[in-house]
Amino acid sequence: MTSKFKIAGWVAVGALAGGLTTLQFQATARNAAPQLPLEELQQLAAVFGMVKTDYVEQVDEKKLISDAIGGMVAGLDPHSQYFDKTTFKEFREGTTGKFVGVGIEIGMDDGLVKIVSPIEGSPAFRAGLKSGDLITKIDETFVKGLTMDQAVKRMRGEPSTKVLLTIFRKSENRSFPVSITREEIRVQSVRTKLVEPGYAWVRVSQFQDRTVEDFVAKVTKLYAEDPKLKGLVLDLRNDPGGLLEGAVAISSAFLPKDVVVVTTNGQLPESKQKFLARPEDYSRRLSSDPLSRLPAGLKTVPLVVLVNEGSASASEIVSGALQDHKRATVMGAQTFGKGSVQTVRQLTADTALKITTARYYTPSGRSIQAKGIVPDLMVDETPDGNLFGALRMREADLEKHIASGQGAEVKDAAREKAREEAIKKLEEAAAKKDEKPKPLPEFGSEEDFQLQQALNRLKGKPVLVSKTMTERQPEDAKAAE
């Protein structure tokens, strides 16, 4: 296999993505200090001293300590992270949906930056960058060997400054330079449209600070356009997650008051929580209930939720809650499987620790960790199949991911084989000039096959379900084979 995803990530340059986060900026002191391993700490001090005195050139002491903390946290799981001054600032900017950069969601593919999607209206979008493009150089720096964070930092900068990206487009088998002027990116996390009389489409691309307010405003506008909606599609495809309160709020918009949306469980007492469909659980940082302005019809309108392999974390909470309460039909592909909660604990004025503190569970008690939400109806991305779905990384593919807590875990050999076959087909098609891989249609467009199947479901028409997709085996079942 000539190409293989090494790292999964749905990371807008500088923006929060790929997580379920509670913004609890709190002191780290505990009533009972843990007993420290003295011998290991002495070894750490000895290594620190050797590096200071013996290394070929002088090193920054503060950087050594920062790197040591970062390494310790990075060894826990893929989602825990130490924030230094720069990354903490970027994290805070990301939760607001504003940052300065080129405007792309990225992952890593065989050591190169892979563009998952250009953010609509961004400089990268206007420059014509496409999903699947690989970034091989950032200015004069080769990407090979850089971490994702290092690549992100090089693409960020001050407004109105330029960055030169060298792009390799597999479908055209060519490399070319693109000069992009950085600007402040305002991510629109909610988009809506009236697809046709009586039927609406609502897309949530991330769960940010303003997602709930934007959702309320745009859905209210939809009902003003058509007060007698007969069906609604909630599109959570490629939604990487975000803030926990946002997920509880969007779920509560469709559910009866006071039903369970999600529960969390971890080592600390405060991590054992139950979140209900009520204002005190989704508007803790607001003075009023933002959902009170929503049309009453939203509680009963027939609902389909679209998900895919890129739907993670907060979007899995929403789809899982609506599925468990039988409020919606979930359609698409099995989701990413990120069922853990990260809490941000501030260390100093400029640094913080994002650490995994709990697993979350759907109302029926299902752990989503390393498995995901299984749709009620599996539907391919296109009428011709689901070729690109096998290429997407999931939580279970990540190194050091935590287990579900509900069964032993083994590697999914069938999924690995499907990924290799999909990559081979894409490479063979790319080699034939007259058979370039057809890009997926834009979500919400007339060519959006899954959206059309969701509308068919709402209208009571037949749905073209997938003939090839099957549920990934439960972990305990695979372990028993």
User: Major sheet: size, sense and barrel closure?
Assistant: 7 strands, antiparallel
Fraction in helix: 25-40%
- State the secondary-structure class: alpha/beta
Mean pLDDT: 84
CATH class descriptor of the largest domain = Alpha Beta
Cα-based radius of gyration, to the nearest Å: 23 Å
Judging from the principal axes of the Cα atoms, what is the shape?
globular
Cα end-to-end separation:
27 Å
What does the oligomeric state look like here? single chain
What's the quick description here?
With 481 residues, this protein is α/β, with parallel strands linked by helices. It is built from twelve helices and 22 strands.
How would you portray this structure in words?
- With about 475 residues, the protein is α/β, with parallel strands linked by helices.
- It folds into two domains: about 110 residues, Roll (Pdz3 Domain), CATH 2.30.42.10; about 290 residues, 2-enoyl-CoA Hydratase, Chain A, domain 1 (Alpha-Beta Complex).
- About 25% of the residues lie in helices and about 25% in strands.
- It contains twelve helices and 22 strands.
- Strands 1, 5, 6, 7, 8, 9 and 10 form a seven-stranded antiparallel β-sheet that branches. Strands 2, 3, 15, 16, 17, 20 and 21 form a seven-stranded mixed β-sheet that branches.
- Strand 20 and strand 21 form a beta hairpin.
- Helix 7 packs parallel to helix 9.
- The longest helix has 19 residues.
- The N terminus and C terminus are likely disordered.
